[in-house]
Specification:
With 79 residues, this protein is mainly α. The protein has helices spanning 6-16, 37-44, 51-62, and strands at residues 24-26, 48-50. Helix content is 39%, strand content 8%.
Length: 79
């Protein structure tokens, strides 16, 4: 098993960010990125989506659950 640190994840987002990038999306369910999303959004000034977070948000909304969760980025803090 290969462990990827939070610092490596943050650095990877910074590496692909640029002025022409409107949002950053992490794809791959085996990477624990969700806890870093709020910090990355604040640092980079744009939406950051982790696939696990987006999947959970979509499943909740599809079942009529509109709870908002703080601390996990813009997506989970919206209706």
């Amino acid at each position: 098993m290969i462990a990827i640190s939070a610092a490596e994840i943050r650095e990877s987002f910074r590496a692909v960010d640029g002025p022409d990038v409107q949002a950053l999306v992490q794809v791959g369910t085996n990477l624990l990125c969700s806890p870093l999303v709020e910090q990355l959004e604040a640092e980079l000034g744009k939406p950051v989506l982790a696939v696990n977070t987006a999947t959970a948000w979509a499943a909740l909304r599809q079942h009529g659950i509109t709870d908002r969760l703080s601390g996990w980025g813009r997506l989970l803090s919206q209706h």
